[in-house]
Amino acid sequence: MKLHSRARVSLFWAVALGAVCLSVPAACLFGHYPLEFSRVLRLLAAGLSGSGAADGDTAYLVVNGIRLSRVCLAFLAGAGLAASGVVFQGILRNPLADPFTLGVSGGAAFGAALAISTGLAAALLPVAAFAGAATALLLVLFLAQAGGSLRRETLVLAGVVVAAFLSALISLIKALDEESVPGIVFWVMGSFQNRGWDDIGLLLPGFVLGLLPILFLARELDILALGDDEALRLGCNAPRARLWLLLGASAVTASCVAVSGVIGFVGLIVPHLVRLILGSRHVPLLIGSALVGGLLLLWSDVLARSLLSEGRELPVGVITALLGGPFFCLLLHRAARPQARPLTRSSATSRPAGQAGKDDGATRC
Questions:
Q1: Is 190 helix (H, G, I), strand (E, B) or coil?
Q2: For the residues of 128-164, what is the DSSP string, one character each?
Q3: Of 123, 281, 284, 339, which is least packed with CB atoms within 10 Å of its CB?
């Protein structure tokens, strides 16, 4: 495994933490209502100190009531999706796994689509999405344990089946209720439009409860990477650890998707990027991925609400897909490059004859 220098890792933590501290006030600058950075800092300080604002202070309400809540929500959702991606890739031992693999995001999309088509109040939409995600997870677990044990192969197969079935149900809802199609499509593409502090309150319970088993069993992810047999020799109950990690990551994913809609590529790309810098140990990988994922989704949301004029917004899922697709292709191209140097004639002739014969025989076998 490639060794990562201490200076490189320290630089990553310094840049990541500094970027978080700077990005929160900087992201509050962007929007239809123009503000200067110094004024944003004063308004944020007034909000933190509890001094409040004078009656009719529109700038205070814009910064502390609208933009700050949206920034915090986007950062939390990005952090949760990225950390969940690390867990899914670890327990499934699949670098292409992400929060969509097991149908959790598809279940949330189905719950939201059902709520939109039946005309439920907008306040109940996150609740319906979370219920759909939880139902999808239970169905995946039921199918995966049909053979008597919870194995990663059956988890992936069950997730693919459930996700395909839920996608068909969403298409059926759109076909039966054409008036709900715009709302369903916009929600499925992901957005933080009209989200606020109440949505953070909806996100936090499942988010925190899901993080507890992830943080408690983070070191077991390193053991699970060795395989079930080796994990058993090291005293790790692989099926039980995998189940608790799966429940935790799914709860975090469901909480994030319930308030933001379906946002792709964050849980897939960010763990790959951070792994290149921090290595494969899951404790720093989880923390680093959470920071980078939060920053990615935060600034993707800034782009989504800044690119169009007159207060119009793009779905943030479109931005993450446009950013993540080419970057993932670059990662695949980098991984496909040959790592080993070709065997030269001089190196082959410099080995002892007996050793060369053994190697050639092994190659033929």
A1: coil
A2: HHHHHHHHHHHHHHHHHGGGSS--HHHHHHHHHHHHH
A3: 339
Question: What number of other Cβ atoms are within 10 A of residue 254's Cβ?
Answer: 31
Full-model pTM: 0.83
Q: Residues 6 or more apart from 166 whose CB is under 8 A from it?
A: 103, 106, 107, 109, 110, 136
- pLDDT single digits (tens) 187-196: 788 888 888 8
Euclidean distance between CA atoms 244 and 253, whole angstroms: 14
Six-digit token string for 299 = 């600034």
Residue 73, token pair as written in the block: 């929500």
Cβ atoms 215, 245 nearer than 8 A: no
How far apart are alpha carbons 45 and 42 in whole angstroms?
A: 5
The pLDDT assigned to 36 comes to 84
Residue 108 CB-density burial (10 A; 0-12 exposed, 13-18 middle, 19+ buried): buried
- CA–CA distance from 151 to each of 13, 135, 143, 238, 341 (Å)? 35, 20, 11, 9, 37
Round to whole Å and give the CA distance between 112 and 139: 18
pLDDT digits (tens, 9 = 90+) for 254-290: 888 888 888 888 988 899 889 888 888 889 999 999 9
> What span, in angstroms and rounded, lies between the C-alpha atoms of 352 and 359?
11
Q: Are the beta carbons of 250 and 130 closer than 8 angstroms?
A: no
Q: d(Cα 50, Cα 67) in Å, to the nearest integer? A: 17
Q: Identity (one letter) of the amino acid at 216?
A: F
Residue with token string 């202070």 = 57
Half-sphere exposure of 78 (CA within 13 A, CB side): 28
Measured CA to CA, the distance from residue 220 to residue 236 in angstroms comes to 7
Phi, psi dihedrals of residue 96, rounded to the nearest 5°: -95, 0
Task: Name the token pair of 278.
Answer: 């921090």
Position 283, amino acid: V
